[in-house]
UniProtKB/TrEMBL annotation:
Gene3D superfamilies: 3.10.20.740. This is NADH-ubiquinone oxidoreductase 75 kDa subunit, mitochondrial-like isoform X1. It comes from Diaphorina citri (Asian citrus psyllid). PROSITE patterns: 4FE4S_HC3, COMPLEX1_75K_2. Keywords: Iron, Iron-sulfur, Metal-binding.
Length: 69
């Protein structure tokens, strides 16, 4: 829904901050921040944003579903 005349949009609230952190966390689920193995070689927009948000690690862990132990 587009912003309409008379609306007030808050972009610097606690709710917005939490939403941004959640989106960043999901973006990082399958993206390691181990830059030496990355094709971007340290020139990564996603890495810069994750460091700015302070979310350089995820609460999700890798789970091995291969059945090997």
């Amino acid at each position: 829904m587009p912003v309409m005349k008379g609306w007030r949009v808050k972009t610097n609230s606690e709710m917005t901050r939490r939403a941004r952190e959640g989106v960043m966390e999901f973006l990082l689920v399958n993206h390691p921040l181990d830059c030496p193995i990355c094709d971007q070689g340290g020139e990564c927009d996603l890495q810069d944003q994750s460091m700015a948000f302070g979310s350089d690690r995820s609460r999700f862990t890798d789970i091995d579903f291969s059945g090997k132990r």
